[in-house]
What we know:
Keywords: Signal, Transport. The protein has helices at 22-26, 44-49, 77-86, 133-144, 153-156, 163-167, 196-199, 210-216, 271-279, 291-297, 326-334, 338-345, 375-385, 406-420, 431-439, 457-465, 479-489, 494-510, and strands at residues 55-61, 91-93, 99-101, 104-108, 114-119, 177-181, 184-188, 234-240, 244-249, 262-268, 286-287, 303-316, 351-352, 395-400, 424-429, 445-451, 515-525, 530-531, 534-536, 539-541, 549-550. The model is unreliable at 1-39 (pLDDT under 50). Helix 16 packs antiparallel against helix 17 and helix 16 (457-465) packs across helix 18 (494-510). The strands form six sheets. Strands 11, 12, 13, 14, 15, 16 and 17 form a seven-stranded mixed sheet that branches. By secondary structure, it is an alpha+beta fold.
Amino acid sequence: MVNCPPHARFKGAPRATLPFIFFSLLLVVLAACGGGNTSTAPSSSQKSSMAQQQVLNFPDVGINDLAVLDPAQGPDGNSAQAVNMIYSGLVKNDQSLKTVPDQATWQISSDQKVYTFKIKPDVAFSDGTPVTAQTYVYTWTRALLQETASPIASFFMAPIQGADALANNKTKTLSGVKAVDDHTLQVTLTHPTPYFLSELSNSLFFPLNQKVIEQYGKQWTQHAAGNGLGTGPFMVKDWQHSKKMVLVPNSHYYGNKPKLTQVNLLFVVNPATALQTYLAGQYDFMWNIPAEQQVTVKDKPGFVRKPLLQSDLLFFDNTKEPFNKAAVRQAFAYATDKQALVKDVLKDAVTVAPTIIPPGMPGYQPGYAGLAYDANKAKSLLQSAYPDLKKMPKITFSYPSSQVSANEAAALQSMWQNALGIQVKLDPVELSAYNDRTSKHEVQFGFTQWGADFPDPYDWLTLNLTSNASNNNGQWSNAQFDQTVKKAEQTSDQNERIKLYNQAEQIAISDVGWLPIDHQALAAIIPSWIHGLTMSGNGLYFGDWSDVYILQH
Length: 553
C-alpha cells in the first residue's frame, strides 16, 4: 500500500513484471481448497541442513514503531509486515499475485453478484476462539460503522449490498453479508465486480476477534501481546514500542505450521542505518535499500531487485493558495525533470513515471507521455498565475525521510527553484508522523507512494482521487474525473471500462491531482541461508511461512 494506502501507502508494495490474468481468475465458479491444517514437520534432510536456532531477525525498515495494527485503519506498508503475519482471511495472493483459497473455497452465481464461501471448520483465533461466518459478518459490519472511522472501508466495500447505507449511518446491518450457517458466508454485490475476489486478499476483510475488541475497547491493538487478535501463522508475544515486536507461532493456526520459533520485527527508521546494521550481521536479511546505496551493494551475494506495482507521486493542497490554481500545479509538473532525477540521483534503480498506474497493471498506458519536463512552459504557467512572484505564498515540500533521501529532496528543490525562480523549503518528517499529518491534511506540498492492493485501476484512481476519497491527501476535486470513474464502475464491458479509466487518469495527470515521479522497484539482500523468502510484485514474499527457515551457515 503508502508512506501509505497506503492508509494504503506503501514503501515496498509491488509491481509485477508479468501482466495480470486476473479477470478470468475472478470469474472462476469453484476454487479448489489448498493447504490444510497439518503441521509440516521437517524431513530428515531439512533437519540436517536447518540451523539449530530458528529465530529470524527481520528489520522493518523505515519506521520507529508500528503505526496501525487494526486492519480497518488501512495499515501502511511497514505495519502490513506485522498485520500479514498476525491476521489471515478467506483468500490470499500467491507469488504471482493470483488470488487463491486460504480459509475458504467459493462459488460465484451465474449473474456474478452472489459469492458463497465455505469456511474451513478448524479456523480459530490464536487464543482458540473459533472463527465462523458470523465472525465475518461482525468484522465487515464493524469496518463500515462510523464509530470505527475506517479511512478505507467505504471504498473497498462499496460493491457490497447495503454497504453505503451502513457507512452513512442509515442502518446498523450490512444486508449483503449473511451467515447461512457457521461455515457458510454469503456475500451479495450490487453489481458484478471483477476485482471483488481479489479485494478480499486485503487485510480489511480479515476476521477480527470480537471478544478482544469488546474487552479492551478502542485501545484493543495496544493489548496485542498475549491476546488472540488474528488467525494468522503468528501471534504477538511482546511489543516493545519504538524498538521491536516479537512474534511466535500461533498454536491454533489452521494452516501448515511455521518452522521458525520466533520472529523479531526490529524497527529502524533510517534505511542507510539499517543497511549498515545488516552488513554488521545484526539482521538476517535487508530490504528497502535506498537507490543511492544500491550501487555499493549490488554485487553482494543475495542482492535482488524487483519491479513493484508501486508509484512515487507528489500531491498539493488544492484548498489553499498557491496550489488551488491548476496553472501552479502544472508549473511544478513541467519543472520536474524526472529523467534526470532517475538517472543522476536514483541511479536507474527505478523507472520514470509519466503515468500514475505502473506497468503490469490493467489500465497502464505505455504510450502516454504525461506532463514532460519543460522549464520554459513551467515558468510561463507560474507567471500566468502570479505575474509578481513576490506575492506568491511561501512553499514547503514535506516528505517522509525514510522514503525520500536528502539527495533526492535537494535535487527536486534545485529543479523547482531553477525552472520557476522561487524558493522551496524542505521539511523531512519521520514516516509515522508524516502519515498522521497527511491524514489530517496538514501538508501543503507532499510526497506519497501508492502500491496496488489489488490489480485494478479502481484501486489507484477511485480510491485516491475522487473528491470524497479519504486517501485524497491534497483534496483535489475534479467533476469530470469523478463522473468518468463513476461511469467506469457502471460499465460491464471490461475493455470499455479500462478506456474510461484511461481517460480519468489523463484528466488527473493533466490537472495534476497527482504528479507521478517514478515507478518503484524493491531492492533487497536475501542471503542463501534464508530459505523460502523471495519477492513478488507486492514486495517481500514469505508464502505461507511454513517453508521459511534458517539454514546452517
